[in-house]
Structure formats: C-alpha cells, structure tokens
Amino acid sequence: MSSEFELIHRHFTRPTAHTDLAVGDDAALMRPRPGMQLAVSTDMLVAGTHFFPDTDPHDLGWKTLAVNLSDLAAMGAEPRWAFLGLTLPGADEAWLAAFSAGLFACASRYGVDLAGGDTTRGPLTLSITILGELPAGKAITRAGGHTGDDIWVSGQPGLAALGLAALQHRIDLGPTGREHCIRALQHPTPRVELGLALRGIANAMLDVSDGLLGDLGHILERSDCGAEIDIALLPLAELRATGADEAQARRALLAGGDDYELLFCAPADRRDTVLKIAHEQGIALHRIGRLTGHPRQLMLRETDGRLLYPMLSGYDHFA
Ligand code: ADP
Ligand code: MG
C-alpha cells in the first residue's frame, strides 16, 4: 500500500510546460501572460450521480478534465492549468494508473498543466478547477445575446443522453448506434478550438451540459431575450440512425444532458463566417433558431408551422 505522497508522485506529477511551480509545494505558482484575464471554473463528478462507479477509469480521467475544458471553451478561453481534487475509497493502483493516463491524455491534447490538487479518502468524487486565459474583456458570456441573433449548436447534441438511456436499459438501439452513443457519453470532445474561434463573433455562449432547452433558458434569462427554435432545423438524422424513435431522438436532443456541445448566438450577418469556421475545423455547426424580443419566452416551431411552448427545465440536482 503506497502513501498519499507516493500516490501523488506516481500518478499526478508530470512535467509541466508553462507553470513556475507545480505539484509538490504548498501552492502552485503561475503567471498569466500580459494583457490576459483569467477564466476559472470548477466542476465535480460524483460516483453514482454523474457516472457509474464501474466506468472505465481511462474514460473517466478524460471526461473529468473534458467537462471542465468545456466550460472554458464556452467563455472563449484558452485552457492553461488544472487542479485536481480527488476523493478515493482506497488506493487502487491499476485504477489510478488508468485514470491518470486518461486525464493526462486530455491535458496534453489541450495544452493543460496539472498544477496541483488535493487527495482524500471517501466516496469516489472527482473535482477539477480549471484556469484559462483570454484577452481582457473578450470573454463570451451568457448575457450578450441580441434579438434577431441566430442560435447555433455544435456537433451532435443528444447522443450522450441516448448512451445513458442505453446503459440504463431504457432504450433499445442497434449495436452500432449503441456503441456510438455510449462513446459520446463517456468520451466527450470539449469544443476548445471552436470557443476560441468564436471570440468576436458569438454574442452569447454556453456549453450544453444539462439539456439544450434548459441551458438555452440561461442565455434567455441573462440576455433578457426570448427564442424561437425551428424543429425542421434540428439535427435529428444522426440520432434517428442510432435506432432511436422520433420522440426519443427529439427528447435526447432538446432535453438530454452531458453533451458538452457549444450553444451560441451570433448576428445573422455572420452566418458565412460561422459556416467557414465549421468547415475549417471539421465540426458540424447547426443553426437551429433565433433570439426574439419576448423576454424568457421559448417557442418551438413544429415542422407543420404550429408553435409549441415547452417548459424551460434542465437537470437540477435539488429539484
Ligand atoms: P498540503 O498538505 O500542504 O495541503 P498536500 O499533501 O495536500 O499538501 O499536497 C502536496 C502537493 O501535492 C501539493 O502541491 C498539491 O497541490 C499536490 N497534490 C495533492 N493531491 C493532488 C492531486 N490529486 N493531483 C495533483 N496534485 C495533487
Ligand atoms: Mg502544505
């Protein structure tokens, strides 16, 4: 059985690229580059609430960092440093080796130094504090949306929710569809480069973690706008192709959690620019509606033109 210090040394101490003093002292030392503002965010993953305790530890290491990177992406910030709070039921060396390999795979892909953390014993909980940089004043917040802006979403929202439903035996997908959806749930791609490219283009942005409509509600609230979503514009084909029926596909796309796609609002005259970014980055960007001048009112336009008024509720741990 190794000590806490051996464990930290073995699994969480790696060379850093841009940290003056990282793991091993009482505090880390780092310098933001001149003219840059820090963007800081914390996200926790609790076993049994956010993931199944038997989740593959390599995937879990990746996802723990990826969901935090997604928050920085949603501000248009460049990720730089992470701190890892780890609560472990015991020191399972094989589990820790795989977890840290997954975490560092994600860290090196996105240029993040693990600069410190804390390790305690208890029910499995993973917490990351992430720090990123952006030119001062250039953050893309939830509050900048304007009436008439297009509403866009990246990638394929809904896959992760179908993956979760498949793991919980609530839905029957074809074997290929099942694998595709579970992969989306367990190995999300944080849209870091997209977030950076949207600086100066998107007026408002967030990452979709608790369901698209519920999260859109946060933009409506902060930007004092309404929204009209056009069902005919929703990217449903790939969800249908997994074997989900129409109702399951729509619910997964509009209300499913764990997507970590970016939802953003941009002026209609920037459409070509947004599509150019999509092309350059090889990411699908879907224009799904527009902001309206009716504060906090969300409308869905059915394919036959009828208007529906859904509830704006995402996942709430205490509801
Ligand atoms: P202290 O007792 O002074 O708070 P700790 O023993 O908690 O220090 O941590 C020692 C060093 O190891 C610190 O630099 C801390 O940032 C780092 N550390 C502890 N746990 C982790 C972890 N899970 N991941 C990365 N660094 C860690
Ligand atoms: Mg100390």
The distinct ligands, each listed once, are:
adenosine-5'-diphosphate, magnesium ion
Residue share in helices? 25-40%
Helix-strand sequence: HEHEHEEEHHHEHEHHEHEEE
- State the low-pLDDT regions, or none: none
Strand order of the largest sheet: 6-8-5-9-7-10-11
CATH topology-level name of the largest domain = Phosphoribosyl-aminoimidazole Synthetase, Chain A, domain 2
The termini sit apart by 41 Å
Overall body shape: globular
How many distinct helices? Answer: 10
Structural class: alpha+beta
Query: What is the assembly state of the chains in this entry?
Result: single chain
- For the report, how would you describe the main beta sheet? 7 strands, mixed
Mind explaining what this structure looks like?
This is Thiamine-monophosphate kinase. Catalyzes the ATP-dependent phosphorylation of thiamine-monophosphate (TMP) to form thiamine-pyrophosphate (TPP), the active form of vitamin B1. It catalyses: thiamine phosphate + ATP = thiamine diphosphate + ADP. Belongs to the thiamine-monophosphate kinase family. Residues 24-133 form the PurM-like N-terminal domain. The protein has 319 residues and is an alpha+beta fold. The chain folds into 2 domains: 4-135, 60s Ribosomal Protein L30, Chain: A (2-Layer Sandwich); 150-308, PurM-like C-terminal domain (Phosphoribosyl-aminoimidazole Synthetase, Chain A, domain 2), CATH 3.90.650.10. Helices cover 34% and strands 24% of the residues. The protein contains 10 helices and 11 strands. It has a 7-stranded mixed beta sheet, with helices on both faces. The radius of gyration is 20 Å and the shape is globular. The N and C termini lie far apart (41 Å). Bound molecules: adenosine-5'-diphosphate (ADP) and magnesium ion.
